[in-house]
Amino acid sequence: MNKQRKNSIVARLWTDRWIYIFLLPTVALIGTFTVYPVVASVWYSLLDWNGFGDPGAFIGLDNYRDLWNDPLFWNSFKNTLVFLVFAVPLRVGLALVLAVILNGVFPFVRLFRTGIFLPVVTTAAIVGVVMRYILDPTGGPINFAILETGIVDQPVNFLGSASLALYSAVGIWVWKWLGITVIYWMAALQTIPRDVYEAAELDGANAVQKFFRVTLPILTPFTLIITLITVIEATNVFDLMLTLTGGGPFYSTEVIDIFVYRHAFTSNIPRLGYASAAAIFFAAAVTLVAAVQIFLVTRIRKWRKL
Amino acid sequence: MIGRRLNLWTTLRILALAALVLVWCYPFAWLISASLKGQQEIFSKGLNLIPEELLIENYMRAWGAAGFDNYMLNTALVTIGTVVLVVFHSALSGYVLGRFQFIGRNLVVGVLAATLVVPVGLTIIPIVDFASALGLTSSRLGIILALSGSGQAAAILLYAGYFRGLPNELAESAQLDGAGFFRTFFSVMLPLAGPVTATVSVLTFLTAWNSFLIPLVFTFGSPELRTLPVGMLAFVGSNETDWSGMAAAATISLLPVVVFFFFMQRYFVEGIAGAVKQ
Questions:
Q1: ipTM of the modeled complex
Q2: Structure pTM?
Q3: Is position B62 within any domain?
Q4: Are B36 and B161 contained in the same domain?
């Protein structure tokens, strides 16, 4: 009987052989370049390993212990969190306001949408380089402009000052990616049926009441999904940060990805195991946050159906 | 009466948006302007965007002397290769995931969904280790393979969603005509998926053209294989004071992707709006 069942599984696999052949390229590519690296990183994080090609030595959890005592690791952890806390609400909130304004038919609306969207399609690493010049304290146009208006009497060193650089990066990141979040919100707004608003108008609601009492509650599940997507994107700021500040000045913009990159690729003695441990530690923290958010999304969905 | 009030609101809205869009696009206007100005003029003329005379020599310097002709070729080859490979593998797997039940399907879908949240910092060290063991670093093919295998779950899910929605009759009638699994896919199903292929191609084109970390670490030992953003970082590293050269190089690097976007806008917006609705 057991043998028969086994045979039927083999027979099923054989009838479905084309399905597995079709899956093969994806499994090979994603397996090699996404799934295997995640698994391998866990192993690497347990090694003392000083360069590609060198064999690593197993040292157990020592890398994690060192991380725990490394102020620069906690600095990069903190920078990533500060970036998240400022950048995510700013991007999600501003994008909602813009989506509400852009959601309609009026002259030039397509032009405006394209204009807001333009930075999204450009290369983040090139934008990072260009912004170094645009924000330059001696020749950059932004400082020309604010000096001319007289808001400040000396140039602002947006990227060269350790207390300001991270917030400048937040501003550039929000500018760069806002357009994509506007599109998300517009897609969400279009799911709201017109008659809901008509009903609210019949009840005498004004525009502000309609927004807070009708639009926002309907958008709640979208808010959570859009926030989740934005949080994930805000932890992936390597391209912009490396080209904008390289993590400086004085590590003030060194986010986790830059910390990993520095230890793995640019230090004199690479510490690949240590860098892997930092990546694993941080990924675990992000996964935890994402899991909580997904849990909330499903809870709210259930609660709304009751 | 109502018409008038609407007009006032609309006018205010248009004015506010026009101001915002001007600010939003200003960096690009400044970039193009600086790329046509002389070095002194960028500093002395401050906010004036109109160059005194158009200096094309900045572009010649960036294109020829700084090697951006070569970076452009590398970026184009890597981008085209990645688009072809991603369309190929995500159409195949999207098709079977969207239309068939089979042993292991849930596992594949689950793993794909999980890859959506994997950060690059976590994968880059094993990718480089693996690729250098196979001799794939310092090669365009290596960059293409690594880009095609990271973060393409969205493309697969787009295909799967589309193929799921196609009526069964199409596949059945093809089978009645004697077409096998393979022929049904290539001569009936794939041609019908034109819109998704367009969206996936456009999205992949943009991510591949704009990709940075993988081309950066794959070309540490081979400057001749650098892509545009990697070359850009190297250029300003050694010519930090050449503002107009930097601006010309950045304009050269961004122009293709911006032009591409203007023509393919529709597919792009549909792609990302579809992603959030799912």
A1: 0.89
A2: 0.89
A3: no
A4: no
